[in-house]
Amino acid sequence: MRSILALLAASLLASSASATNSPSSSSECSSTPAVICIPIKTGVLVGADVNGTRRNGAFEGSIDQNGNPILDLGFYGETSPAQQFTFNACASTYTGWDPVETGSNTTFYGTLHPAKNKAECVKASRWPYEHYTTALTSAACSTADDASQLPQTWSLSVTRNATGAHDYSLTFIGARKSDPSTGSQYGFTAYWAAERPVNALVPFLFYAPPSQVVDGQFETGTVYKFSLV
Fold it and tell me: Looking at the DSSP assignment, which residues form a beta bridge with residue 113?
């Protein structure tokens, strides 16, 4: 039986999408319909490596060479301060993703934003993605139901752990459901690199087959997986 959470989210997303695309909605003034989102989970953004080392992810002043704010996992020898982020499940005809439930596990698709700033999303700083240079930035969320959703599309997988509590795992999607499978997926590998300060640990996007991640490493960087706790 589907969980109450999944049913609620699916119902709200369906009704919101229907309202957005109806002739009486405000979208009739625009050729591009709007994406409708609802909050699912708010928590501290945490990155963990294969050894269980955990670091908070935060926007705390690190910038890239173009002056854009980028997410980091702490300065040298320290972790970032705990910052709250909110995941929103979104109804997007363009991306085509819907909530999926498998047993007691539910996966939602949508956007991630700093809890204190609903207008900005955590998105790829470069798009289309570029290897070694694409970090995560905080920038204005796009509400247009078109290709502008791709650099800000994430999934949130809700699962039960051994204690019976829920875990909330984040994955960067950056693709449409209808896109052909390539055998590769996005992940994050961290390097000590930032324009200011110079010693911030920055997670960069990579796109590769899972087999290329060996012992928690991709190429020369440590792989981190994000969750909300």
Answer: 86
What distance separates the 2 farthest-apart alpha carbons in the chain?
56
Contact 207, 171 (CB under 8 A): no
- DSSP-derived letter for residue 198 is T
User: Average pLDDT for residues 101-122, to the nearest whole number?
Assistant: 95
Instruction: Give per-residue burial for 171-210: e unless 16+ CB within 10 Å, then b.
Output: bbbbbbeeeeeeeebbbbbbbebbeeeeebbbbbbbebee
- 56 dihedral zone (left: phi>0; alpha: psi -120 to 50; beta): beta
Provide φ and ψ at 146, rounded to 5°.
Answer: -150, -160
Average confidence score pLDDT of the chain: 89
User: How confident is the model at residue 144, as a pLDDT?
Assistant: 98
Is the distance from CB of 13 to CB of 187 less than 8 angstroms?
Answer: no
Q: Which domains does the chain have, with CATH numbers?
A: 4-228 (2.80.10)
- Amino acid, single-letter form, for residue 135: A
Kindly give, in sequence order, each residue whose CB lies less than 8 Å from that of residue 132, ignoring residues fewer than 6 positions away.
Answer: 204
The residue type of 84 is Q
The two three-digit tokens of residue 191, written as one number: 């390097």
Helices (H), the chain: 4-20
Q: Name the region of 49 (left: φ>0; alpha: ψ -120 to 50; beta: rest).
A: beta
How do residues 31-81 score in pLDDT, each as one tens digit? Answer: 778 999 999 999 999 999 999 999 999 999 998 877 889 999 998 878 899
Q: What dihedral do alpha carbons 155, 37, 66, 203 form, nearest 10°?
A: -20
| pTM for the structure as a whole | 0.88
**HSE of 91 in the Cβ direction (CA atoms, 13 Å)?**
17
Given a cut of 90, whether residue 197 has pLDDT beyond it is no
